[in-house]
Amino acid sequence: MSFRLATDPAKGDRPNEDFAAVGTNAAVLLDGAGTPPGTDSGCVHGVAWYSHTLGGLLLGALASGDSLAGALADSIEHVNRLHADTCDLKHSDTPSSTVIALRWNGADCEYLVLADSVLVLDRPGAAPDVITDDREAVVGAELRKPMDALPTGTPEHAQALRDYVAALAEHRNRPGGFWVANTDPAAADEAITGRVGLDDVAALALLSDGASRLADRFGLATWRATLDTLADEGPAALIHQVRTAEDSDAEGQRWPRAKNHDDATVVYGHADA
Predict the structure, then answer these.
(1) Domains in the chain, ordered, with CATH?
(2) Where in the numbering of this chain does the PPM-type phosphatase domain appear (predicted)?
(3) N or C: which end of the chain has fewer CB within 10 A?
(4) Residue 134 in 3-state DSSP?
């Protein structure tokens, strides 16, 4: 397979908390869960360090013969060891991340999806297969209503966002709640996993939720149109479309959201001719 990648931070003055990389037979995309400004995470390194460190370790671990979930669990444990002496790993806001991991050989592609980043498989002659873990969205639907009722960018919205993040933390990595890569290696066993034959996939896309929102939050594109944009114009063009839509609704009145812009990352792979 051949790959193209693009990423764009939400703000130029803050680190990009997304991470994506492609190896010879594996690819990963992680979307770090950022803490609102003024919120202590208990980690001196920050969310970008966490997602980038975990992503790099995971890509390396995928070269082993372990399962995808096993590779993720080992990588989470490895990151724990790297900062357990300097950071409070039991803090409710300690950094966390979504994960998409792929690994392929000459015949199949294995996948793992944990939390709300999106994997889209382009199936020849069929509708795209969209794989995401929506448990956080289900849990957060009621919790986010006070935040969504306020204009994005206002002090009131910023406070409501902090309240939402604090309430959501009570459901993170708990039965009946939702699961992310965090400090508990057992979260890897909660991921959605599967396998698909390479002959059954013409192309695939890994998207952080900052890049998928054109289709799944804004409703401005179908998944078919999203794949067509990636095939014809590339990942950067899709992110540009997202930014244009966000700028048209800067206060979040049409599409309520935690922040106007989010880090946006796309990895697009297609079968070699």
Answers:
(1) 2-265 (3.60.40.10)
(2) 14-234
(3) C
(4) coil
